[in-house]
Amino acid sequence: MAEETGYEEHEPLSLDPTQGCQLIGAFRAFHGIKDGYVVLHSPPDCHSGMLLLRTLCDNADARIAFSGIHPRDFIYGAEHKALIALKKIDETFKPAFIALLDACAPAIVGDDLDAVEVKAREDAGIKSKILFFTAAGFHKNMWMGYESALASLAKFMDNSSGKEDSVNLIGFKDDGFKSVADLTEIKRLLNGVGLNVNAVLTADEFKRIECAPKASLNIVLGGDGIKLARVMNKQFGIPYVVVDYPYGVSATERFLERICEGLEREVDESFISQERARVKEQIEKVQFYLHGFYGLSCAVIGDTAKGIALAKFLSAELGFDVKVLAITNKNFMLEENLKKISGLAQEIMVEPDRFEMERCIANAGVQMLFGSTFDKRLANIARIPLVRFSYPTIDSVALTDTPYAGFRGVSTWLESIVNSLVSRYYEVRGVEV
Amino acid sequence: MGEGELMSDNFNYSLSPEDFMVSSVWSLPIHGRAALGGKISCATTIATSLKNTVVLVHGPIGCAFQRRMNPCRGWNPIYDMPCTALTEAEAVYGAYDKLLSAIKEVYERYKPELILVISSDVADQIGDYMDAVREEAKVPCEVVVCSLVGCEQDNVMTRRGFSIIRNALITELLENVEEDGKDDKSINITTLVQFPDEGQRYRELRSLIQNMGLHINGFYFYNNSVNDIKAMPRAFASLVHYASEPWTEFLEKKYGMKYIELYPEPRYSSIEYGPYGFDGVDRLLMDIGRVYDIEGKAEEVAKRSRKEAEEALAKHLPALRGKSLGVVGSYTGGYAADLVRYCGMKCKLLVLRFRTGTNFDMLLNEAAKERTVDMWRDFCLKHDSDPEILVEPTLEEELKALKRTKPDLVVPASLLGSAWWYEKQGFKTLIPNRLFGYFFRLGYWTVVDAAIEARRALERPCSSEPLLSMLDQDEEYSGLTRYWGDNARVFRQMWYEEV
Questions:
Q1: What CATH superfamily is the domain A22-156?
Q2: Quick check: bond before B266 cis, omega within 30?
Q3: Of the listed ranges A234-238, B88-92, B339-343, B446-450, the one predicted with least confidence
Q4: Which one of A10, A16, A27 makes the best mutation probe of the B interface by having the most chain B beta carbons within 10 Å?
Q5: What is the nearest CA distance from A104 to chain B, expressed in angstroms?
């Protein structure tokens, strides 16, 4: 298994990146703390960029402020502003937790934000728990920022309240497309086999995260967040299982089986039978389209956890020919996973340059694309449908309880895929003489 | 109102689905209320409106990744955004060589006519001598380097991202271009922000200029090639927003180019200030005429075109004349002022709010606010209106005043997104989204469109049970919920006050 220690970034780095920097990864991890707040010690660009990415997903929930660094602060520093911002956020929103992240500019200046964290803790007026996390974008890329940020939460965890027969979900991102519905479905599945979710890292309140050591097992979704799982294993003795993100019937069954194995208990077969029967009813309604799906060529652009899981589902359960699988960002499990998925797609690209990725997909000649908002042009040029599922999806909203994950997710996938193909206007192309 | 009246084939603006995206994105509180776009987004707004141009961000991957979404053109991400992917070591030792290699690689990949290098904060701080790559890159295309250092988002237009990039493009691309014959009848038009259908937006101005016997050398910047930019000196004059922008001075000094300033000093001296409304467009055409020494022709075109627009307007006036208005305004008059001065509508209530959608409003000091009140009062009195004036009232105070004065039509401020609130209270309301591009169009027909929208607003039923009324509205920031209002207050303190 790939260890995070000694992991090295290899040159050349992507020229046109398919992922963001460490700051964005850390923001994604911390923003999942539902009663938390993120304060960026940054100029307006970083703040507005992340606020925009977040707000376009969810107009009601963008808990991100900034310390208002002006260009003159690039010279003289602006630690005092970070402290003021922390106070202001604490006073205004009364969050349980505030993550203070620095951007590149103050990191170069050398603002001492460790000292700001200490001052904030000593300030009797500030009630929120404060964490300074070094996040300057030039240090690392998005997934590494996410891993480190998530792992940094271990220091707040309290192991004193004993064990419960429950599980933690690790690596869940609350800004993913259909994340709310996916989480509801995953919790329903776990309840269906008699398990309660103790904490979701991160899509939960801070007190749930503090109590995360109460769980008997950590479930690591697609390998994202394994650094935290290992820290918790070491510090609190909590075992973990790495499971595929549950897309499709088989993956969902395996998801439940692996978790039950991890807890040394039997899977409730009656629950699974019942769910299979429901899925079967839905499949019957679109059975002839499913015949048509066989051999349909597609490309999948997504992160390690979701991209691989989707490619497996499309290939194994729908008979798609996955020509290109572009993994936009790695995790520590990817190297191991790559061996297992060899042959899943004609071409597997890892953290590709966007230009090269688009060229590869265009040359592959696919009939359908699964990706994010940033893949819209590619789909338009190729005149093929785009089904959005990966980060960032900011040009579609997801308000209804229609997950992509789990047994119920199968219907959503079928709906999305069939509708995107069937409801298009197809030009009749004449024969050129 | 019949469909035929609405669908005139003159210079009415026809809204498209992209306009919905523009008004949705602009209703986000990211343009100075709870966040500010920053210099890179301003710069890429201009850069991505050029033909065969690739922007290369000299910065870490995060800058390129997140700036694909641009708050000024939120209807479409920027798909190609290569960067130099600066790392920590390069932040210490510099990354000049990497930039040089990246330029070559960008050329190999995209084969653009122009590579536009934009700096990030990191690049600005490490102090790479970026300008040198223009000589050293040795690529068969143009390279323009735009360092955004010191570019702070404030109310000084010449320091904003899009101004800095405009300066870089013009001064660098024209650096070695000698004038190759002046066309005395040619004019350059400067655009401001980029909207989805700039062609339609400038349709009338193009026609007016052609009728004056002139022709447009180019719109800068809108879909320009490098050659288009290099052809700028051919024009006899440029229509510019602010003469203080360095590129205007550059063109004047190097090529003797004249300019016509859209917003001359003293700025915002009256509600009728600016190239808006019939009188504003008259003034603009006469200004152009003076520079080209064709004042007679300009006057003739102005008279004829205004008459045509007035005739189109006349069809709508019986439905508007004498009707009363409740105007929610700031330091500009816009279409609300047009309804008063050209449509015979009476301003009965004037509400001034300075926490609107842009940082321009946010930066107004108390004296400027007082002057704005006086300007509005003078304007209204001049046009036979004597409104009750409220300055930054609470919602409750505003509602009381509305109930007291009972205006026939409310004209909310353009960026506040609060039309639903007035309709919920039972007041007919002009929907600002319908006239969103008003301030970015130049021509007489903006008044006609304002009248059409006002008439339609008076005729159509109010949205009496808007879903938006289920949300708690902030008392200070119209159009924002309390949650967003709190965010805006924190932002205001951190950005505007803690300096």
A1: Nitrogenase molybdenum iron protein domain (3.40.50.1980)
A2: yes
A3: B88-92
A4: A16
A5: 6
